Protein backbone atom coordinates (compact mmCIF):
# COMPACT_ATOMS: atom_id res chain seq x y z
CA UNK A 1 0.00 0.00 0.00
CA UNK A 2 1.20 3.44 -0.82
CA UNK A 3 2.27 5.48 2.18
CA UNK A 4 1.95 9.25 2.00
CA UNK A 5 2.80 11.99 4.37
CA UNK A 6 -0.03 14.20 5.52
CA UNK A 7 -0.54 17.17 7.72
CA UNK A 8 -3.76 17.79 9.59
CA UNK A 9 -4.58 21.04 11.31
CA UNK A 10 -7.63 21.12 13.53
CA UNK A 11 -9.22 23.57 15.90
CA UNK A 12 -10.65 22.56 19.27
CA UNK A 13 -12.99 24.58 21.40
CA UNK A 14 -10.85 26.85 23.55
CA UNK A 15 -12.59 26.40 26.90
CA UNK A 16 -12.79 22.63 27.37
CA UNK A 17 -11.12 20.93 30.30
CA UNK A 18 -7.57 19.72 30.06
CA UNK A 19 -8.65 16.09 30.55
CA UNK A 20 -11.12 16.20 27.68
CA UNK A 21 -8.59 17.77 25.36
CA UNK A 22 -6.03 15.13 26.24
CA UNK A 23 -8.52 12.36 25.68
CA UNK A 24 -9.41 13.68 22.22
CA UNK A 25 -5.78 13.95 21.20
CA UNK A 26 -4.98 10.50 22.50
CA UNK A 27 -7.88 8.99 20.64
CA UNK A 28 -6.71 10.61 17.42
CA UNK A 29 -3.23 9.23 17.90
CA UNK A 30 -4.51 5.70 18.38
CA UNK A 31 -6.66 6.11 15.27
CA UNK A 32 -3.59 7.03 13.23
CA UNK A 33 -1.74 4.00 14.56
CA UNK A 34 -4.64 1.64 13.98
CA UNK A 35 -4.94 2.87 10.42
CA UNK A 36 -1.38 1.74 9.81
CA UNK A 37 0.26 5.13 10.09
CA UNK A 38 2.75 6.80 12.37
CA UNK A 39 2.64 10.19 13.95
CA UNK A 40 5.76 12.10 12.97
CA UNK A 41 5.21 15.31 14.83
CA UNK A 42 2.61 16.87 17.03
CA UNK A 43 2.45 20.62 17.30
CA UNK A 44 0.38 22.74 19.65
CA UNK A 45 -0.14 26.27 18.33
CA UNK A 46 -2.02 27.29 21.42
CA UNK A 47 -5.20 29.32 21.68
CA UNK A 48 -5.54 31.87 18.90
CA UNK A 49 -8.08 34.42 17.86
CA UNK A 50 -10.15 33.25 14.93
CA UNK A 51 -10.42 35.48 11.86
CA UNK A 52 -14.18 35.06 12.09
CA UNK A 53 -16.52 33.50 14.63
CA UNK A 54 -17.26 29.82 14.32
CA UNK A 55 -20.51 29.05 16.06
CA UNK A 56 -20.28 30.83 19.39
CA UNK A 57 -16.49 30.87 19.49
CA UNK A 58 -14.13 33.70 18.67
CA UNK A 59 -11.04 31.79 19.76
CA UNK A 60 -9.79 28.31 19.08
CA UNK A 61 -7.10 25.93 20.18
CA UNK A 62 -5.02 24.93 17.14
CA UNK A 63 -3.20 21.65 16.75
CA UNK A 64 -1.09 20.29 13.92
CA UNK A 65 -0.48 16.59 13.37
CA UNK A 66 2.19 15.58 10.92
CA UNK A 67 1.77 11.91 10.10
CA UNK A 68 2.46 9.29 7.47
CA UNK A 69 0.16 6.49 6.49
CA UNK A 70 -2.12 4.96 3.86
CA UNK A 71 -5.12 6.90 2.59
CA UNK A 72 -7.32 4.74 4.84
CA UNK A 73 -5.74 6.33 7.89
CA UNK A 74 -6.70 9.77 6.62
CA UNK A 75 -10.32 8.91 6.02
CA UNK A 76 -10.50 7.37 9.50
CA UNK A 77 -8.95 10.44 11.10
CA UNK A 78 -11.29 12.77 9.22
CA UNK A 79 -14.32 10.67 10.06
CA UNK A 80 -13.50 10.92 13.74
CA UNK A 81 -12.71 14.62 13.58
CA UNK A 82 -16.16 15.11 12.12
CA UNK A 83 -17.68 13.13 14.99
CA UNK A 84 -15.90 14.86 17.86
CA UNK A 85 -18.07 17.66 19.12
CA UNK A 86 -15.16 19.72 20.40
CA UNK A 87 -13.59 20.04 16.94
CA UNK A 88 -14.50 23.28 15.22
CA UNK A 89 -12.59 22.86 11.95
CA UNK A 90 -10.03 20.58 10.37
CA UNK A 91 -7.95 20.50 7.21
CA UNK A 92 -5.73 17.73 5.88
CA UNK A 93 -3.04 18.46 3.33
CA UNK A 94 -0.83 15.98 1.51
CA UNK A 95 2.83 16.84 2.03
CA UNK A 96 4.69 14.04 0.29
CA UNK A 97 3.37 11.57 -2.22
CA UNK A 98 5.50 8.57 -1.45
CA UNK A 99 7.43 7.81 1.69
CA UNK A 100 8.40 4.69 3.59
CA UNK A 101 7.38 4.07 7.17
CA UNK A 102 10.99 3.32 8.12
CA UNK A 103 12.18 6.69 6.86
CA UNK A 104 9.34 8.41 8.68
CA UNK A 105 10.29 6.56 11.83
CA UNK A 106 13.72 8.16 11.55
CA UNK A 107 12.28 11.60 10.95
CA UNK A 108 10.14 11.17 14.01
CA UNK A 109 13.13 10.28 16.15
CA UNK A 110 14.97 13.34 14.85
CA UNK A 111 12.01 15.57 15.57
CA UNK A 112 11.75 14.22 19.09
CA UNK A 113 15.43 14.86 19.67
CA UNK A 114 15.10 18.41 18.41
CA UNK A 115 12.10 18.99 20.63
CA UNK A 116 13.98 17.64 23.60
CA UNK A 117 17.02 19.78 22.88
CA UNK A 118 14.90 22.88 22.45
CA UNK A 119 13.14 22.30 25.74
CA UNK A 120 16.41 21.70 27.56
CA UNK A 121 18.00 24.83 26.12
CA UNK A 122 14.99 26.91 27.04
CA UNK A 123 14.98 25.64 30.57
CA UNK A 124 18.68 26.19 31.02
CA UNK A 125 18.55 29.72 29.72
CA UNK A 126 15.64 30.51 31.97
CA UNK A 127 17.33 29.13 35.04
CA UNK A 128 20.57 30.91 34.29
CA UNK A 129 19.41 34.37 33.33
CA UNK A 130 16.11 35.31 34.92
CA UNK A 131 15.35 35.75 38.62
CA UNK A 132 13.09 32.95 39.93
CA UNK A 133 9.84 34.92 40.30
CA UNK A 134 10.00 36.36 36.81
CA UNK A 135 10.64 32.96 35.36
CA UNK A 136 7.26 31.70 36.38
CA UNK A 137 5.47 34.69 34.93
CA UNK A 138 7.26 34.39 31.64
CA UNK A 139 6.72 30.66 31.50
CA UNK A 140 2.94 30.83 31.73
CA UNK A 141 2.71 33.52 29.09
CA UNK A 142 5.07 31.82 26.70
CA UNK A 143 3.15 28.57 26.85
CA UNK A 144 0.08 30.08 25.22
CA UNK A 145 1.96 31.50 22.30
CA UNK A 146 3.65 30.10 19.24
CA UNK A 147 7.11 28.67 19.19
CA UNK A 148 8.49 31.41 16.98
CA UNK A 149 7.43 34.00 19.44
CA UNK A 150 8.86 32.01 22.27
CA UNK A 151 12.25 32.45 20.77
CA UNK A 152 11.75 36.15 20.22
CA UNK A 153 10.70 36.59 23.77
CA UNK A 154 13.67 34.70 25.02
CA UNK A 155 15.92 37.10 23.21
CA UNK A 156 14.17 40.06 24.70
CA UNK A 157 14.59 38.62 28.11
CA UNK A 158 18.29 38.51 27.61
CA UNK A 159 18.48 42.16 26.67
CA UNK A 160 15.78 43.82 28.78
CA UNK A 161 15.56 44.28 32.48
CA UNK A 162 12.96 42.98 34.89
CA UNK A 163 10.06 45.41 34.42
CA UNK A 164 10.29 45.79 30.67
CA UNK A 165 9.97 42.08 30.25
CA UNK A 166 6.44 41.81 31.44
CA UNK A 167 5.18 44.75 29.38
CA UNK A 168 6.84 43.39 26.27
CA UNK A 169 5.17 40.07 26.75
CA UNK A 170 1.78 41.66 27.17
CA UNK A 171 2.16 43.76 24.06
CA UNK A 172 3.02 40.74 22.03
CA UNK A 173 0.06 38.88 23.29
CA UNK A 174 -2.16 41.78 22.33
CA UNK A 175 -0.85 41.76 18.78
CA UNK A 176 -1.54 38.13 18.48
CA UNK A 177 -5.16 38.53 19.41
CA UNK A 178 -5.94 41.21 16.88
CA UNK B 1 4.56 63.56 -28.84
CA UNK B 2 6.55 63.94 -25.68
CA UNK B 3 3.50 63.65 -23.52
CA UNK B 4 2.35 60.48 -25.21
CA UNK B 5 5.67 58.84 -24.61
CA UNK B 6 5.57 59.66 -20.93
CA UNK B 7 2.10 58.27 -20.55
CA UNK B 8 3.08 55.02 -22.12
CA UNK B 9 5.99 54.65 -19.78
CA UNK B 10 3.70 54.92 -16.78
CA UNK B 11 1.53 52.09 -18.04
CA UNK B 12 4.35 49.76 -18.98
CA UNK B 13 5.86 49.63 -15.49
CA UNK B 14 6.87 46.01 -15.23
CA UNK B 15 6.42 44.16 -11.97
CA UNK B 16 8.42 41.12 -11.04
CA UNK B 17 6.96 38.17 -9.20
CA UNK B 18 8.43 38.37 -5.71
CA UNK B 19 8.45 34.61 -5.33
CA UNK B 20 10.41 34.12 -8.54
CA UNK B 21 12.86 36.80 -7.44
CA UNK B 22 13.34 35.28 -4.00
CA UNK B 23 13.41 31.51 -4.12
CA UNK B 24 13.66 31.24 -0.34
CA UNK B 25 10.24 32.82 0.21
CA UNK B 26 7.72 30.06 0.76
CA UNK B 27 3.98 30.13 0.31
CA UNK B 28 2.37 28.53 3.34
CA UNK B 29 -1.24 28.49 4.40
CA UNK B 30 -0.05 28.28 7.99
CA UNK B 31 1.57 31.69 7.78
CA UNK B 32 -1.19 34.28 7.35
CA UNK B 33 1.17 37.14 8.05
CA UNK B 34 2.88 36.76 4.71
CA UNK B 35 -0.35 36.03 2.87
CA UNK B 36 -1.91 39.20 4.19
CA UNK B 37 0.09 41.10 1.62
CA UNK B 38 -2.01 39.54 -1.15
CA UNK B 39 -5.49 40.39 0.08
CA UNK B 40 -7.29 43.73 0.18
CA UNK B 41 -8.45 45.34 3.39
CA UNK B 42 -11.80 43.74 2.75
CA UNK B 43 -10.18 40.34 2.55
CA UNK B 44 -10.45 39.80 -1.20
CA UNK B 45 -7.60 38.19 -3.08
CA UNK B 46 -5.63 40.73 -5.10
CA UNK B 47 -5.54 39.80 -8.82
CA UNK B 48 -2.36 38.95 -10.60
CA UNK B 49 -2.40 42.02 -12.80
CA UNK B 50 -2.11 44.18 -9.70
CA UNK B 51 0.03 42.10 -7.38
CA UNK B 52 2.46 41.33 -10.21
CA UNK B 53 2.84 37.63 -9.40
CA UNK B 54 3.47 35.07 -12.09
CA UNK B 55 0.72 32.56 -12.85
CA UNK B 56 2.40 29.70 -11.05
CA UNK B 57 2.86 31.54 -7.81
CA UNK B 58 -0.50 33.28 -7.96
CA UNK B 59 -2.15 29.86 -8.07
CA UNK B 60 -0.21 28.77 -5.02
CA UNK B 61 -1.07 31.95 -3.15
CA UNK B 62 -4.74 31.59 -4.00
CA UNK B 63 -4.77 28.03 -2.73
CA UNK B 64 -2.92 28.99 0.43
CA UNK B 65 -5.31 31.86 1.14
CA UNK B 66 -8.31 29.62 0.66
CA UNK B 67 -6.88 27.04 3.02
CA UNK B 68 -6.08 29.71 5.58
CA UNK B 69 -9.63 31.01 5.32
CA UNK B 70 -11.08 27.61 6.01
CA UNK B 71 -9.01 27.37 9.18
CA UNK B 72 -10.09 30.85 10.29
CA UNK B 73 -6.52 32.11 10.04
CA UNK B 74 -7.68 34.70 7.50
CA UNK B 75 -11.03 36.38 6.94
CA UNK B 76 -13.41 35.56 4.10
CA UNK B 77 -14.70 39.10 4.30
CA UNK B 78 -14.04 42.07 6.48
CA UNK B 79 -16.79 44.66 6.85
CA UNK B 80 -15.17 46.78 9.48
CA UNK B 81 -12.96 48.84 7.19
List the helices and strands and how they pair.
The complex is a heterodimer of chains A (178) and B (81).
Chain A lengths: L3 E9 L5 H17 L3 E17 L2 E13 L1 H13 L3 E10 L4 H29 L2 H13 L2 H13 L2 H16 L1
Chain B lengths: L1 H10 L6 H4 L10 H4 L12 H4 L3 H16 L11
Can you offer a commentary on this structure?
The complex is a heterodimer of chains A (178) and B (81). In chain A, 57% of the residues lie in helices and 28% in strands. Chain A is an alpha+beta fold and 178 residues long. Chain A is flat and about 55 Å long. Chain B contains five helices and no strands. Chain B has helices at 2-11, 18-21, 32-35, 48-51, 55-70. The longest helix of chain B has 16 residues, at 55-70. The mean pLDDT of chain B is 84. Chains A and B meet through strand 2, strand 3 and strand 4 of A and helix 5 of B.
Brief synopsis:
With 178 residues, chain A is of the alpha+beta class.
Number of helices of chain A: 6
What characteristic shape of chain A results from the CA principal axes?
Answer: flat
Helix content of chain B: 40-55%
Q: Outline of chain B, from the CA principal axes?
A: globular
Can you give keywords for this protein?
heterodimer, A: 178 residues, alpha+beta, Alpha-Beta Plaits, four-stranded antiparallel beta sheet, 6 helices, 4 strands, disordered C terminus, B: 81 residues, mainly alpha, 30s Ribosomal Protein S18, globular
Amino acid sequence: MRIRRYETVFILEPDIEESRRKETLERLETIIQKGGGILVKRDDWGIRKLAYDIGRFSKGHYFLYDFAGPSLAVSEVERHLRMFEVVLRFLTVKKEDQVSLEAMEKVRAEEQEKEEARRMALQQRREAEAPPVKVEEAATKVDVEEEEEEEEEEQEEVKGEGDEESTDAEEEEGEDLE
Amino acid sequence: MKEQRRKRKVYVRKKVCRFCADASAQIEYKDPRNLRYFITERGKIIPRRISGNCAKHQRKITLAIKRARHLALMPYTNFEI
